[in-house]
Amino acid sequence: MSQQKRRKEAAWKARKQEQHPHGKINSLKKLSGEYDVEHTTS
């Protein structure tokens, strides 16, 4: 395998592992609090 191909694959793997498409995941307690605020106020 050539150096360039190895470097390309390493860069691709690094980009794949660093993705956060939906942002960071909140704690369950924080999520449930946000849900209550949005869905219980009328």
Largest sheet: none
Strand proportion, as a percent range, falls in under 5%
Shape from CA axes?
Answer: rod-shaped
Q: How many strands? A: 0
Structural class of the secondary structure composition?
Answer: mainly alpha
Helix content: 55-70%
Rg over CA atoms: 20 Å
Instruction: Encode the helix/strand succession as letters.
Output: HH
Describe the fold and architecture:
- The mean pLDDT is 79.
- By secondary structure, the protein is mainly alpha-helical.
List the helices and strands and how they pair.
Elements lengths: L2 H15 L10 H13 L2
Brief rundown of the structure:
InterPro entries: DUF6254. The chain is an all-alpha fold and 42 residues long.
Keywords:
42 residues; mainly alpha; 2 helices; 67% helix; rod-shaped
